[in-house]
Amino acid sequence: MSIDQATVRKIASLARIAISDAEAAAMEGELNGILGWVEQLGEVDVTGVEPMTAVIPNHLRLRDDVVDADPLTGGGRRDDVLANAPAPQHGFFGVPKVIE
Amino acid sequence: MTDLTNLTVAQIRDGHRAGDFSAVEVAEAFNANVAGAKALNAFIVETPEHALAAAKAADADRAAGTLKPLSGVPIGMKDLFATNGVQTTAASHMLEGFVPRYESTVSAKLWDAGCGMLGKLNLDQFAMGSSNETSYFGNVISPWKRNDGGNAALAPGGSSGGSSSAIAARLCPAATGTDTGGSIRQPAAFVGISGIKPTYGRCSRWGIVAFASSLDQAGPMARDVKDCAIMLENMAGFDPKDATSLDMAVPNWEAALSSDLKGKTVGIPKEYRLDGIDPDIDAMWDAGIAMLKDAGAEVVEISLPHTKYALPAYYIIAPAEASSNLARYDGVRYGLRDLPQGAGLQDMYAATRADGFGPEVKRRIMIGTYVLSAGFYDAYYTQAQKVRTLIARDFEQAFGVCDVILAPTAPSAAFGLGEKTADPLSMYLNDVFAVPASLAGLPAMSVPAALNREGLPLGLQIIGKAFDEQGVLNAGLAIEERAGFNARAEKWW
Fold first, then answer.
1. Nearest-CA distance from A64 to chain B in Å?
2. Which residues of chain A neighbour B396 with C-beta distances below 8 Å?
3. Would strands B217-222 and B194-197 be described as parallel, antiparallel, or unpaired?
4. What angle do CA B85, B86, B89 make, to 5 degrees?
5. How many CB pairs under 8 A join A and B?
6. Confidence of residue B2 (pLDDT cuts 50, 70, 90)
7. Among B266, B283, B229, CA closest to B251
8. Closest CA to B435 of B279, B307, B323
9. Does the annotation count B78 as an active-site position?
10. Exposure string (b/e) for B468-486, b if CB count within 10 Å is 16 or more?
């Protein structure tokens, strides 16, 4: 399967990355090169093979149902959470206006 | 007085404990080396005050008789680990200026063990690369030069290229690395040091900037096998904050080190004998086989039939996970925001991500987005995960007849900066021997084994059974003792 520039622009839009026409043109070749190369996986007979879900057998745990059991990941850390936000406002994350 | 920066982690720990020198002297010696090595560009941020504070505490602890396992040992921290109060960038513009308010589990364990931090080490952007040429903060330069009289700047490998370059240049005795598809082992091989990626889940991923979560695994890089064992003991351990953390006791790897391989069987995978491979690599591999035989091991040929499909499977799975993990960089919660005049939310996302990510990161996000998109998911992603099952099965079957596997770490010695940047695929192929163990979650390490005809280091890789870091370290030690690798880069920086 090879992709064209319109597909490149669609992928970029899905990935929320702005690209120029020149970048789309360059990326068309690069992505086709990589996708053409991974295509060889189609040769492998995978009849009856389950896709891998966990590389090392492990069971998923639930953490204890305790408030603030781990203070690092518990609540009450608004200022820490906002410390690296580019535009915090009034104790919230700031975003551009989303409704007219 | 001996140059303290030539000491290994074990020598610093033991010498400090014995009172041969103070931790402050050690920290000052390494701080001076770091400050004098700007030409290597190994550090993004230098933290001499952190190293000194830890050293003062170590000296006080010695006086008080309360020494910790790594008191007095300063290390380098790959800038992929969140460090409380110290900028953490993943070598990206996106996270430039990001100062975490928390500490990654692995780095916290090392500070608790008494280590000090010399600085945050440069890497490939978001750990995506094999040469450290994708960093927003510039290339890391290897301290090594070819012996051809030329002056070509060589790649330190990647993604842990700052770690490898800094250790080889004696800027730190050990450093953290992370390995998603070879990012500890390949850079270690390129500069003639050791590095181990433990079993997936040994080291907590909490606080490590995520690339591909089913593959990412932290591990140590150092000058010898014993130091790797010491460091790994102080990095590993169960962490409830990481859902895939292994709930297992951390073995005392250092104490159990033994290079006597009697009764052990070493597998040599025939599929790793690539056509047209560098004869120096083949010769080093054969020498490694002889060394393990000499250590008492039996050697058998094994087959890992799906080896050639490991890289293409990796280049679907890793970008797919990356496209999901990196969706968090939205210009809202942390990191860069690019808000063009009059732009709405969607335009802000797109502008922020266009500005904040480098070309290789964008390429991988795009590939990942494509292979996960409707209509292509089964053909690419599900197929790759099935192939991954087959690759893991190959190893499982091989470990029915052998205890560890010996192979080269990389198909070449260090290449020159710029030699592989024009074609992403040629760069990807440098991880051909490293990626299969990553896909199977197995412990694997690189130890320096020889110099090639250009005078550059080559590494041998040992791959072990899940949870058998000890078997890997022991085989590594057997090679280390016999290879007698003690070459080092001549100082030019």
1. 10
2. none
3. antiparallel
4. 125
5. 171
6. confident
7. B229
8. B307
9. yes
10. bbbbbbbbbbbbbebbebe
